[in-house]
Amino acid sequence: MLDAFEILTTSGIVLWRRSYAPVPSSVVNSLVGDVFIEDRRPKDAQGQQQTSYKKDKYTLKWTSAKDLGVVFVAVYQSLLHLSWVDNLLTAVKALFTKDYGIELKKAHVTKLNTQPFDATFDALVRKLDTGSTRRQSEADSEGPIELTPPSSAASASEEAVDEPPPPPIPAPQFKKPAVSRKEQFEGTSTDATPVPTPDTSRPSTPASHILTAKSGPGKASRRSRKAQHTLTSAPASSGDESSAGRNKKTATKAKRRWDADGFAVEGEDEVLDYSAAADSQQEQGEREVDVEDVNASQMGSRTGKGQFVLKDLDDEVDAILASSKQQVKPDSTEGDAGLLGSATSRLTGLFRNVVGGKTLTKQDLIQPLQQMQNHLLEKNVAREAAARLCASVEADLLNQRTANFTSIDSTIRESMSKALTRILTPTSSLDLLRDVTTTISPPNPRPYVISIVGVNGVGKSTNLSKIAYFLLQNQFRVLVVAGDTFRSGAVEQLRVHVRNLSELSRREDVGKIELFEKGYGKDAATVARDAVTYATNTAGTEGNGMLFDVVLIDTAGRRHNDTRLMSSLTKFGQLANPDKIFMVGEALVGTDSVAQARNFAKEFVDTKGKLRNNGVGMDGFIISKCDTVGDMVGTLVSMVHATGIPVVFLGVGQHYGDLRGLNVGWAVDKLMK
Amino acid sequence: MAGSDTPNDWLTWAFSPTISAILVTLVVSLCLPVLIHYYLYRKASAKVLPTVLLIGPSGAGKTTLLTLFANGTPSATHTSQEPQTALCQLPSTTSSHEDRYRSEHDTSSRSQPKFLLVDTPGHGKLRHHALSSLTSPTALKGLVFVVDSAAVSSAAGLTETAEYLHDVLLLLQKRHTQSKTSRDPQAIPVLIAANKQDVFTSLPASLVKSKLEQEIAKARQTRSKGLLDSGIGMEDDGGDDEESNWLGQYGAKEFKFAQMEEHGVEVKVIGGNVRGEGEEKGRVEEWWAWIGENL
């Protein structure tokens, strides 16, 4: 069963909300933040993008009406599998747009009177709810069905009519009690009497082949007997519950009777509990009232607004669902209206293109978007990233009107700049000096650990020395760790860098730098851990307590598709536990950048298996060799698009001072030039 | 001849000294200018409403504040993705700037001024909406920077808030110091609204002020020492020197909001809460008063 359903605007105001269970507001906030703003949709195993979002123990599904700027969100427990939520979303979107679309289009709307929508929603849920295919635990089932009563704005007769329908609503969810029984049997071995629950279940357990696998020794025979009995019972997905109020089958659960042999007595509906009579009577009453309902609505007598809504709703909702399932055939080329007709239409099309005010259709956008995609590909953006950017621009601009005196091309360019700006802007900008200062200052000081990873030959050691130079200029004490124990000459290279930097720092009288190395052939992770211990060492230091403020760890370059080498990174990440992990990517790399970024990012999991840094893996990219590519800085976009990790530094030369931060406007300018 | 007679007759009558002709002439000569005036000035009479901008980090309560000011009661809200504008009117209990010359006992009826309240998203990726509204030339009369008083008690929340506030104040300072006309652009006062004062862990407004000042001092220090931007060759106005990127008084160790006054930016910190606990209403009267003074 649904936990909550919300309708909110893109500016954040909740227009209408129905909650069946208390859902914390952070769940929807994180949906908006992760999916809509940061565009971080998780992919499942096949690489397909999912249309649902999971957070804590909730699953969220959504749809949006872009022209009105309204988003519809349905929240339910992840344990359930509700297949009717998509239909519900489509139907709610169509009905809400029809009811309130005009009001929403007015300017400055911050509040709507959406009380009448309560009844519509209730009717929709009744109609579409086909139950869940897995039941959640019992504690949940009893509690949260606190249906808000129909709005007080409804007429009195509507109140009377709505009374019988609410009791049946709990019923549909109890169609699949098989799992509950399975849970009980797994837990206890001797207690086979099911706890009587208010939610009624069928006396026989369908689909009990799962049960037989897990049963204890003494129960196999009974279960298998049951299995034979129950194969003829109703199938798991009951399509017959789709219409409101019918086929409730709220039979009470029969109590298990035991005979002398220790086997349950089957097939008898004899119950000692006399409350069953009352239930069945109530059920009879409900059924009769339901029959009355149908008659009354057909005749249209003494009915309030609610009845009419229900009746019209059926036809309308069927039409909506049917149309959403149909493939809408795209309008193929215009019918030939003769030479003159086509010539004039083309002329007016051109005119409209220049003057503006043209509503953009899919047909109009194909050609310019293709050109824009080629333009991006020329700028060295990976094909996957360019395709996704163009798809998002198309989704934005479809059915919008161009502004006055702007052509389609310029509209697309503007929209593309906005999309690029959004991708490249980080959610929270990195202030490295700030972080370092905070970590080394008095309440529990410790050294700040940064490590650099990347494939072979991208410039890790060079950029590491540039960062060391920057930190030295800010009066920090830096320890450089030779974590590359594989490549010949790696340690010597770092030794030369440290010698140069210590000479520079001595001349300017800033900072202190030292090299920590353990030769070749050792395990990089243990070298790193030893280095951090050495830097934290407090023996024999002047005042501060730590020998070094910042530890920079170099690692060996490795191919991203070599699993053995990549897996050693995980161990490295867990042992050294760096504060920041930066991956260096060169600006010259082509479409391989996407795969590189993804493979590196997914290696950095902490001991619990969760990706560090809020689930993205690394803390930033350093894009090196930017001076060699000129305008073609598309690698920035590809790597950010692949992982959602921001670019923090750019390497623009081979000297110690050639390190810059990223200016988003500059990057977008270069890409759109 | 009948055709030419009737216009002839009309004209003769119009120029004749009969009472009816005089009356008609009087009516026409008085009404015609009035009608022309209304026709010409019906478009120009649409005044440009003053605008107040709502800015702040994510989760501070900007959208809730917008709904409270626009509708009288706050609605439930989630993270904003787009800016939203609402038409608000000062409540009758607040006195506005225009009333400063009225005497206390003036009982003439007046309608409270209306203004546009613009809410911007606070998420890191969407801050360009807010920053571009600051630089675009609209009738911006005031800036309300909404702060979550409970979040500033933690280090991470304080850093994020202070960095955003630093960027906003720097933008206002640059707008003032780098204006191209000799006349100063109109100064925009800033209200730092310390929201969520009803939460248990919230700090009082004075403590929020001092914490923000310290944090902004640290932020401007690290900004000045940080790496150069990749876009340094891009700007056409002589390039930024260190002084123009330094907020407040150049070279001063501490930052106080009073230092911003030399750039015409008056900063005030006032506490309040949009939502009251349980059934209580929020306390936003002081914020209304500030808006009233600065409209």
From TrEMBL, chain A:
One GO MF annotation is:
GTP binding
Please give the biological process terms from Gene Ontology that the record holds: intracellular protein transport; SRP-dependent cotranslational protein targeting to membrane
Lineage top rank: taxon: Eukaryota
- In Swiss-Prot or TrEMBL terms, this protein is called Signal recognition particle receptor subunit alpha homolog
UniProt family annotation: Belongs to the GTP-binding SRP family.
Composition-biased stretches (Polar residues): 186-207, 229-245
Q: Where is the SRP54-type proteins GTP-binding domain?
A: 646-659
Keywords of this protein's UniProt record, alphabetized? Answer: Endoplasmic reticulum, GTP-binding, Membrane, Nucleotide-binding, Receptor
| Record-linked Gene3D superfamilies | 3.30.450.60, P-loop containing nucleotide triphosphate hydrolases (3.40.50.300), Signal recognition particle SRP54, nucleotide-binding domain (1.20.120.140)
What does the record say about its membrane topology?
A: Peripheral membrane protein
Query: What CDD domains does this protein map onto?
Result: SR_alpha_SRX
Q: What residue spans carry the Basic residues bias annotation?
A: 246-256
Description of how the protein assembles with itself and partners: Heterodimer of an alpha and a beta chain.
Q: Which GO terms describe its cellular component?
A: signal recognition particle receptor complex
Region annotation (Disordered) maps to 131-256
Q: Where in the cell is it found?
A: Endoplasmic reticulum membrane
Instruction: Enumerate composition-biased segments (Low complexity).
Output: 149-158
